[in-house]
Every structure is written in C-alpha cells, then in structure tokens.
C-alpha cells in the first residue's frame, strides 16, 4: 500500500514555537493580539526559507531542512550572539557584521549536510521532525491556554465591591475657569533619599529647580504598593485595595482585576462629569496600553508595540535586519516599529508640552515607562543601545546603577522643560502632578518576600519621587509624608470641593506571583 505524501510542517511549527515559548513565560500579561505580528513574521520567515530551500535543493524535504535552519537562525540569533560575546576568544565574531552571515552559514551548512546524509530516508526524517516539533509546540501552547483559562474563570467581583464602597456621586464645585490637570507617572523613579544612599547621586538640584517654579516636593513620600498595577489602581481610584482574594495568583487573573480598574477609573469619570476632556497617552505596559474611555489617545494604541512584541523583537534577528535594511534604503529604523524607544518617549514629552493649545479644561494622564529599564538615554539625553540587565545584583549592579542614574538625569531635563512649558503656555495655571509609582529596589522582576528582600532594598522600593504644582494652594493640601492614594483626593477636595474621604497612608509589600497577599510595612 502506497504511503500518503509526508507534509513538511516542522519548519512552520518551529516558527510558531519560538513565539509561544516566550509568551508562555508570562501568560498573565500576553494576549493573542500581542502575538499576532510576531507569528506573522515568523511564519513568513519559515515560508521564505522553505521556498529558498526548494530552489537550492530541488527537493521539498531537503528544502524543509533549509527552512528549519533559517527559522533557527532568525529566532536564536540574539542568544547565539550573547554566547559568543561571553567567550573572550570569540568576542570579535559577536558583532552583527560577522555574526549574521556566520550563524546563517553554520545552520544552512548543517541542514545541507543532514539532507545529503539522509538522502534515501529524508521523507521519514520529515515525518519524525513533524511529530517532534508538534510535541514540542504543545508544551508552551498548553501552558499558555491554561494560563488564559485560569484568568477567564476569575470573577470581577473583587473590583466591583471596591468601587461600590466609594461614594456614587461626588459634590461638584460650580463656576470659574477650571485648571487643566496633568497626571504624569514616572515609572520606577526612586526618591532622593535612596538615590543618595544607594546610588551616590544627589538629586537636590533638580528638586530645587522644581521648587523655584512653584512645585511642592514632599520630603518623605511613600508608595502604597510595590507593583505598578497596584499603585496605579489605588492612585486613580482613591482607595486602598481591599476586597481582593489574597490567594489569587498572577496567572489566575490577578492582573486583570487591576488593569480594568486602571482603565475604568474614578479620576477620569469624575473629571468627565465636571466637563473635562480626557487625553490618554498609551504605553507598552499592558495596564496602560489603551483606554476606551479617553476622548483622545496619543498616539493611537494600534501604532504602539506591546511589551511582549518588543521583547520578542529584541530576541530575534529582526532588529538587526531592520537596521541593515534602513541603512541601505535611508529609512527610519523605528518609524513603523516602536518598542519603548527614546524617540517615542521624547515624542510624548513634546506632545504633552503642546496640550496647552487644546480646548479645555482637560485631564491628561501619561504613564511614562521611564526611568524604568530598558535604559535608552545617556545623562545628556543622547540615545544609547537599549540596556536591560539580566538582574540587578552581582556583576550587573554597578553598570545598572550607572545606567539608571544617567536615565534619571535625562528624565529630569525633560521634566523641567515640560514643566516650564506647561506653566508658561497655560491660560489658566494648571495642576501638574508628577508621581512615581514606586522606587527601584534592585530586586529584579520576580519579587521576593519582604523578609528575603532585605531592609535597604525594600526601603528603596517604597521611596518614590513626587512633585506637585498646585497654583494658589494653601499649605497642607499635600504634605511631606503623603502616599499616592491620597494625592488626587486632597487636590480634588481643595479645587473642586469633592468631599473624598482620606485613606490611611499605609504601605504594603507583596510578591509578583501573589500580588494581593499583602504584608503591611507601615
């Protein structure tokens, strides 16, 4: 009995595996839409490799081996370059000029040699490779679907209970020209005390410059929470985060609870009710990637690259290939692809500075993922190759600190320029809230318990930068030991007679995996 022809599927399965394996590492923060473009590009690479392989070998099974080599070359390029860079005698080969053709030649030669050796049984080889690739692909696919399934099973009731506990309708002050409100969240910007103690950097001159403009810079602010999604949900909804099941984990929908509370937040609703327009600046971070309730989103979220896509892009040959392509054709290597590059951060600062020309009053909310890694600015705001240290300790700690301080120095320049512009160009003196979600901490991404973090690093994590421009405010509207949960209520109570109750200035620690299992620190 004649066997059915064997499909050559394994190069395409290998292309999909590279995307799914990365997504499965953090299914809680990756949606299918984030994977769409990486999947399209990876499958296109496999298809091109397959066609080229058939043209070279005149045989589809041998062409499949060539296609697999092309997929591995594309997907593993950064990892191989990293390996070469860490071998002293191979370092010269780690530059793109040598690494790109060298790795390509190596993989294609191996595929060609394998095809010649398996000449008589190459169809059987394709059959086994198909099975192996399918089994390999099922591992991240099951993990990813399982994570999504656990998230989908979780109810929204914890968030609903929290919002029901707030006043349904707040008093509104009438009449007068209302000030535009700017809320600028600088991600992972450490306060002056910890910068001086742990980084040897004195930030006082920047704070003095802000105070000369009329900002109030609190001396000892603290964060309420040590994770961005918790900090933003609390800040925007004026409430400590009660009513959440402590045992719910990240891969069971914990992040979704806060992401929805951040998008559908009380601050925007309240100001909308006062007649404010809502300008929203999306980021690559999923919690602030879009806002369906905004009147204007700058830029349109569809033009942005997700954090997942940015990481995938940097891990493959795509970034190097695009640079070469644009060097040859004199195009902008980031024009159609925007991870959080320096150009996009600069564009957001510039667009914020143009808002005083807009019809008001309006509320502008920008979560700027800086000075958080990747480190993309030098101290003078010139651009550098994105630097993301694998961890924040050991041999990486000193270069990380240098890069972090340099990025803070650049951010300071941009914040001062923006503050001067907003104050000078606004017809009615604006409210400007510059607030870090938390400090750095040098703890890596997968947070340890409070006991394991260490006193110094834990103290740094809850030490955020903050500065408030509140025209005509009497002393005491905001205060030196304020935490983010009380910032907007205190300001709205003064300017709009909002009557929002004050929350305790409490600080809570939790791990990344169990974000709602809070340990109270203060």
Question: What would you note in describing this structure?
Answer:
The protein is of the alpha/beta class and 522 residues long. The protein folds into 2 domains: 10-152, no CATH class; 181-305 and 323-520, Alkaline Phosphatase, subunit A. It is 50% helix and 8% strand. The chain has 18 helices and 11 strands. Strands 2-9-8-1-5-3-4 form a 7-stranded mixed sheet. The chain has a two-stranded antiparallel sheet with strand order 6-7. It has a two-stranded antiparallel sheet with strand order 10-11. Helix 1 runs antiparallel to helix 2 (32-57) and helix 2 runs parallel beside helix 12. The longest helix is centred in the N-terminal third of the chain and has 32 residues, at 122-153. The termini are far apart. The model is unreliable at 155-175 and 331-339 (pLDDT under 50).
Q: Helix and strand layout, with pairings?
A:
Elements: H1 10-24, H2 32-57, H3 60-85, H4 96-117, H5 122-153, H6 157-164, E1 181-186, H7 192-199, H8 204-213, E2 215-216, H9 228-237, H10 254-263, H11 266-273, E3 277-281, E4 296-297, H12 307-315, H13 318-329, H14 342-354, E5 362-368, E6 375-377, E7 383-387, H15 397-425, E8 431-436, H16 450-453, H17 455-461, E9 466-469, H18 487-496, E10 508-509, E11 519-520
Parallel strand pairs: 1-5, 1-8, 3-4, 3-5
Antiparallel strand pairs: 2-9, 6-7, 8-9, 10-11
Helix pairs in contact: 1-2, 1-3, 1-5, 2-3, 2-12, 3-4, 3-5, 8-15, 9-10, 14-15
List keywords for this structure.
522 residues; alpha/beta; Alkaline Phosphatase, subunit A; two-stranded antiparallel ribbon; 11 strands
